[in-house]
Amino acid sequence: MIPATIRAPRSSEMTPSLLAITERVTSQSMASTAQEAPRPGHDALGQVHTWLREGALLQAAHWIRDWLKRTPDSMDAIVAQAALHVELGDTASARTALEQVLATLPDHSRALAGMAHLALCAGDAKSAVDWFQQTGPEALDEAELSDWCEALAATGDLTRGADIARHLCERAPKAATSWFQLGLTLHHSGFHEQALDAYAKAHALDPDLDNLCNNIGAAYLQSGRTEEAMAPIGRAIELKPSNPLAWINLSDALLKLRRPDDAALAARRACALAPTMPLALQAQSNALKELGQWADALALMEKAAMQAPVSGGIIWNLAMLQMLHGDYRNGLINFEHRWASPELEGTFPDLKAPIWRGESLAGKTLFLWGEQGFGDAMQFVRFVPGIAELVRQQGGQLHYCCFSKLHTLFSRSLADVIPEVIPHDTPSLPRFDYHLPLCSAPLRLGTELDTLPADVPYLRADAAAASAWAQRLSASGKLNVGVVWSGSRGHQRNPLRAVPVAELAGALRDLPGIEFHSMQIDGVAELASVPDFDIRDHTAELRSYDDTAALISSLDLVITVCTSVAHLAGALGKPTWVMLDVNASWQWLLGRSDSPWYPTTRLYRQVTYRDWQPVLEQVRADLLGLAGGIPAADAN
User: Which of 76, 108, 168, 314 could make an S-S bridge to 45, C-beta 3.0–4.6 Å?
Assistant: First the structure.
């Protein structure tokens, strides 16, 4: 999940104590009786804005009254009156006053900024930006520049927002809120280290600035510096124990530190403080998934989605849980929100054509393209024949584009389906009328759990290469078993889904009649750490997935964690045992030892968080039975 960040409060949002209010009202009343009218050349409008920001409303009101009495046609005085109307909740009168000014002076910067502020308060950030763009940062005060930053952030123009925030820091370099605004804008832009630098300047000026410590912790989390995030998040909670966003970030940090029970407690506190906040509900759901509390995790995401029906990230997380529970009808619909998820946001290509949503393809060309990772491509390529047949029936034409590293394997496997598979790095794409991401294919085909196309093999290895491997491996007369113990090292869940090689070696050591073969591409150094593990390493010969497919075809069994090899072996129809961590990916469903996606696959599931021992013990027992000619229960 995205760590929760919040903006610094405006002065007008801070609530002083009752005593302080009484003292201020008294002082304002006394001052107003002696207040002189604004002097010529004095920045009276700026003074009014300062008073209003500081809550000195009575003093500002008296001054504005006297100002207008002396110079009723002063445009600045009318803008000041509009600002007072805003503070009193009378936005209609404020708009009328500002429009009066702009009718006379269309380029009055403070009136333009006032119209922008009204738009921002109404939730219309785009109009606010349009109003601000008619003026310049040099003519605005700190609060107006802050409004401009907020409007730009809301419209997604974070580059311009950072520029305006830098103007704000130049204007008020000793104001912690200026540096906070710059840090927040950089933070939302993904420049976490730069954001931390700006936050540090704010912290040096005001270490207890509201929301600052929370956002520092969030930036550390997003930079992968979880340990460093704990102190500022803890301080944020000390300063304001009722801040749900700080508790959300604490839950996220604890989950990254492999403390799911504590993460669940922190998330429960966030939900107690903000029962309908989508991020709080999602945080608790994330923690409960690691604890195997699936029904509660799903219920929380359903509630979060009701509160944030347009949040792509929330809906995408709901989709994962729906499909994990076997609800493909709803899950595939919500899966379409994946492009708004933190993992995929900003990766959708600009293909200059509309997505195909079921329109007639008569006389049209559809461009089907691979997405996400290699495992996803191998899992979903099974839907290419179905899409091809649908296009053919409607009288259209299909182009399919896949990752270049899979091109040889997919071209061979789909030779009877489409005449040509296009590699993704081709210099130019063919013309097409519609396009479709590959993982959207099952939705377009109306696929449900019981209608999955699961005939295997649907991928075919090179026959000559597979035969050469078979001749090499048959000499031993033993059962040949391929092994993969880790997925992509950069995957955020890999530390949880990978099996420590020492534990794996301990489980597979001294098994008679079995020869193990490493297919762990980056595992040479790890194997060196377990010299007594008798395993042959062929990875130097595996230069492509096509090479790996040929080796797999010659093996008797593949044992792997959840990674691309699990999908490749399953798609080749090879008996495959997949070891799954407690929070397994959605396609493996819940509580099953088989897979409707891959009929020759058996699943070995963790029961307790990070405890591989029972899984490895079962794998060893089943291997002993298999080597002795006794099939393992439910094995393929």
Answer: 76
